[in-house]
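The material for today's practical consists of a large collection of protein records. Read left to right, the backbone structure tokens trace the chain's path through space. An example says more than a description, so a record of this kind follows:
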Amino acid sequence: MNSAVAMEATRRRTQPSPNGKTSKEEEQPAQWGRAWEVDWFSLISVIGLLCFAPFIVFYFVMACDQYQCSISQPLFDLYRGETTLLSIWSRSPSFTWSAAKIYAIWVAFQVFLYMFVPDAVHKFIPGYVGGVQDGARTPAGLINKYEINGLQCWLITHALWFANAHYFHWFSPTIIFDNWIPLMWCANILGYTVSSFAFIKAYLFPTNSEDCKFTGNMFYNYMMGIEFNPRIGKWFDFKLFFNGRPGIVAWTLINLSYMAKQQELYGHVTNSMILVNVLQAIYVLDFFWNEAWYLKTIDICHDHFGWYLGWGDCVWLPYLYTLQGLYLVYHPVQLSNGHALAVLLLGLIGYYVFRSTNHQKDLFRRTEGSCSIWGRKPTYIECLYHSADGGVHRSKLLTTGFWGVARHFNYTGDLMGSLAYCAACGFGHILPYFYIVYMTILLVHRCVRDEHRCSSKYGRDWKRYTDAVPYRLIPGVF
């Protein structure tokens, strides 16, 4: 389901035979992937996000900096005339050249690790898939190659972080927190710069013109992207780099900086801060351990590269995905043993569901169905689809295991983990719970986007699949 990409092609329908395989019947032409034309609702949504998303990020960070993480107090103060927008803005730390230097060194270091340090970890750690790997087929029928070295980058970066904290003392472990808002302006500059560059590049010198998609609407093209896999040279892939680095590598470093600040301010680290660090580190490490698998997910297989990914990975991800740790610097919540245990179990069960569901699909793909899932031979629906170069390709939709429970049960596990991060902060403020609200909206929207594309890609076979697995996220509910 996450292997759909954009194109318009004539498709054929497949029918099941007694052995679970399929035979071909003609089907009407259908569009595969993102729409070529933009409806008014989508256009209004895009413009709204372009205008308000940066202010949402600023508002949450400002609320912690000036209002002890209260998201309602600034509004009440504005309503009562006790403050003004100009005074709020003037109290916020501005861009600094020291923050610019820190951020430039950080991004340059991640580029260096990504481009010039080929993966060696896969040679020493059994089961890890790294090095040069094939991506999914693009709309033009191409299969790009990627250097998978994210886990190695993460390990080197964090080894240097801990070496500095305990031995070298080049900088304070609280450096990220201490420069948090000035760094935000730097991240915005990079996010808008790379998004604008990708937009212009698509018109002037695209990596592959057949993998470009122009809707005719400038705002939509800028936000959702035109090029499918913009690259500089052979190996610098915009999507893989900005999706994984620098934002996700930084995620755990940001949390460690929050932990160091809590220790500095209060003389101890709370169990809630430890839980947030541990649970989110599990998620980050899982991402890099399975980076080769990530090449087959919606971000790489579906999305074109635009502001949505460029700015989102530079700003939205590191600043809003880490709100729990930021909140705990200002409110050092010490959870009861029962509460802490419940949060830990929720997070671990959510991770188990998330990882097991994705593992089942990966196992099924790698073995082409010659495997066992939950002790049984997997059942599936086999389909055909066409790429833009006229090639005919097969795909199998799994209906066994967690994929027989719901069509996106991996998202259900993801949401359980997201709720655990928030619940670790207690129930004193709403701000830490923004993450679960956002992730619910994001993943439900992804369900709809993914299923629209799969319906276009597979035609009536997708209807057969949804009949076999009727629920999206929660069996019996949705």
